[in-house]
Amino acid sequence: MTTASVLLVDDEEAFATSNAKLLSNRGYDARTALDGKAALQVLAENNIDVTVLDVRMPGMDGISLLTEIKKRFPLVEVIMLSGQATFETAVEGLKLGASDYLMKPCQISDLVGKIEEALEKRKINEEKQRYEAAREQKGAS
Questions:
Q1: How many CB atoms are located within 10 Å of the residue 78 CB?
Q2: Alpha helices in the chain (DSSP H)
Q3: Which residues contact 30 (CB under 8 A, 6 or more apart)?
Q4: How many domains does the chain have?
Q5: Is 127 exposed, middle or buried (0-12, 13-18, 19+ CB in 10 A)?
Q6: Nearest one of 131, 82, 129 to 105, comparing CA atoms
Q7: CATH at 54
Q8: Which intervals hold domain Response regulatory (predicted)?
Q9: pTM of the prediction?
Q10: Which domain holds residue 15?
Q11: Which of 106, 47, 41 is nearest to 79 (CA)?
Q12: What is the percent of the chain with per-residue pLDDT over 70, rounded to a whole number?
């Protein structure tokens, strides 16, 4: 079994680091990034399954980063996380492709549950992509 890879993106370094340790203790390959630019670099260099990102960050905010992730890495599932989220921001994130939304602070068990749901969604999307590619290839023959 391969280890699921999770990227935590949050400008609060202590929050990102402590949650990464908790996820690592639960068997995930957990990485951190403190801003959008660093997150995109990690995503470009690693096979990340799920990204958990804060909505409010200096520079590139979570909604902008979500949009960029979905454009460049469409199979990466994204969970939005915020301590100051509004209903409108949550809806916007979900419309743009986020798997789910959590309020900070959250229990690690809640975060793990959302990550597991996102991993299941990713598996389904990967399978769908393989099926469509095989169908296209068969049609081209």
A1: 26
A2: 13-25, 36-45, 62-72, 87-95, 108-140
A3: 5, 6, 7, 8, 19, 20, 21, 23, 24
A4: 1
A5: exposed
A6: 82
A7: 3.40.50.2300
A8: 5-119
A9: 0.89
A10: 5-140
A11: 106
A12: 96
